[in-house]
Structure formats: C-alpha cells, structure tokens
Fold these 2 entries.
Entry 1:
Amino acid sequence: MSLQFKVNGKSVSSNSEADTPLLWVIRDELGLTGTKFGCGAALCGACTVHVNGEAVRSCQTQVGNVAGSNVSTVESLGSGSHALQKAWVKHQVPQCGYCQSGQLMSAAALLSKNKNPSDADIDAAMAGNVCRCGTYTRIRAAVKDAAAQLRAA
C-alpha cells in the first residue's frame, strides 16, 4: 500500500509499512538527511519536523499517520537564508551541531504562531529539545533576534 503526503511542498509516496517511523522514511526513502536520529524515544528533539505546521518528533510518528499531510523538514528553511539560520550564525549557536535541525524546527514552529515570544514562550517551545553543548542562552537570543527580523520584514 502506498502512502501519499507532501514533504517540503512536494508530493511523495512511501511503500513502507504504516507503522514505520516517519524519520526513517524521510532519511532513508526520501534522502533528506537534515533530520537527525537522536534517542528514538521522542525525548531529545533532534528529529523534530512539522506535520501540518505542528512540531512533532518524527522518530515516534508513524508514517501512516501523516498520509495526506504536509510535512516540513529542516531543508524547508533553505540553505542559510531563513531568519532563524542567520540568527543561529550571528549568535554562534551551533557547537557540535547535532541537535540543530530539531532546534531550528521547534523555533520555526514557535515563530509561525508567535512573532514576539517572551523568554517563557521560547523556553516552553524549546523545552523538548536537548542540547548537549548547553547553548540554551544562545538559542533563546537567536530566537528573539529571528523574531525581530521577521517582524521587521
């Protein structure tokens, strides 16, 4: 059975079993390797993508549950042109970089709904994303900076 959905605006199909984690379809079938495997238990946030605009953990989201949906991966932000990416560089957020795709996608979900987030809003939206390097204060500053850029645009 073929499952149909969109990824980054393009129609795709998957012949995977319906209970296959979306993460593996994104990475192995579609070749979009920006989304990372971290813990496999939806605890670290490295695998965060958007499904119909909501941030979800793709390691625990079954591909059968996204049939007919719109999925966005970190690749949907472009290659350095998004306000979040610019702010990430400006504030030197990445250290090892492994968590960054999930961090960016959680931040993008927040900013799509809240163009002027408070520290508490940012902390709540980013709470499920673990950064082993501990760059949380830089992440918060970058989200605020990106929000300001988006408001000014």
Entry 2:
Amino acid sequence: MTSRRKKIYEGKAKILYEGPEPGTLIQYFKDDATAFNGEKKAQLEGKGVINNRISEYIMTRLAGIGVQNHFIKRMNLREQLIKEVEIIPLEVVCRNIAAGSLSKRFGIEEGQPLPRSIIEFYLKDDKLNDPMVSEEHITAFNWAQTQEIDDMMAATLRVNDYLCGMFAAVGITLVDFKVEFGRLYEGDFSRVILADEISPDSCRLWDSTTNEKMDKDRFRRDLGGVIESYTEVARRLGIMKEMPTVIQGGIH
C-alpha cells in the first residue's frame, strides 16, 4: 500500500507520503527506535502502532480545547491523515521537572521540580546534534518571526497545562516534552499550528507513585520493557485495549 505512494520525507520514526488530496499528507509511524541523534538504533515491534494511537488521542483532545494541530484522522494501525504544513526547523521543549540534558547542563539532580515550567528551543539538525538556540538566534537567522515564537510558546504552555492534568489523572507525571510546529498556509497568510506527534517518544513520563520511567528513556538507558511501558501509558489513557493481540499478531 505504501510503496505506491510518493514518499515526501523520511525521519527517524516516521515517513510522510503524499496525501489523497492537495494540502494533505499521510504520516506513517515506524517501529524504529533511535537515540543520541541516531547513533543508537533498534526495531521495537509495535511501537509505531502504539504511538499512532496515543498521538491521535492527544491531538484530538488538544483540538477540543482550541490548540490547532495538523491531525485530521487516523487511517489504520500505523497511518494518519494530516494537514500539510511547512515545518519550522525548531524543537520546542517544555520542562516541568529536572531530567536529561537540563540536569547535566546545570548540575540539578534528576527529579527535582523546577521553579516554573521552562521552555527551550533547539535547532532541528542532527548533524549539529540539535543545538540549543535563543530567540535572538531564531529571529536573526529567520527560522521564525517574533509573532511565531510567541504563538509557539503560548501553544506549548497550553499543551503543558492540559497534558499535566490528563496524565496526572491516570497516575503519570509529565516531566518534560518536545513539540514541533508548522506553518499552515491559507492564501497569502500562514498560521502556526502544532505538528509532528506527541507520544512516549517525545515526552518523559514517570509513574506518579514509583517514578518508574514509562518513555523513550527506557530505550536510551537500556532499561528494557519499552513496548510494555508504552502500552501501559495507552492502557491508562483508556485506549488500545486490543494492543496485546496487535503485538502478538506481528503487524508490520
């Protein structure tokens, strides 16, 4: 099915194909897991299926509270129909609790709550190891306009507020997450909307009681049980009750 379509772009975890109508794309979720900008790689059977469903669930709910995003509908186990956008070459990271690179950079113990949510920008460039950039860099190099930066920050804080509550209600702490944005063109005008995905690949999620990691850090740090943890996130959110049979069935 996918081989007949024109491939537009292939990333580490997803492939974008030409959509059925102008202004649309098909986003295919792969089972590939990568870390450290692709230096560490593995195939985790079923990961793409789980991330497709979790991202669908989250994007649908965010649209319901007015956070505009690229999601149109889920087409099958691994594919979504999405709006075509011009991706802004920035990763927007929102942090609530010290972890990962922030802990290393500032010598803050992992797990320490931050005084307030912190938003950081990183340039999307694997060859450069996605360097952290300031708003000065972003505007000077014309990666985004000042108004677009404001829109991205406002949307990211709304996403954070909503997801913190959503995950807390099912016993999960949202430590931090990464989102991406794109420009949706309407005639001569464009607006910034949420794009890419939101899943355990792009969030740090800890069990609220045990602080056990339920996200991609399990892969990064060789903790094992990656698929089981992703599946548990989906189960707690009340989606993918059929997931165990999907994995056993070996969907490719």
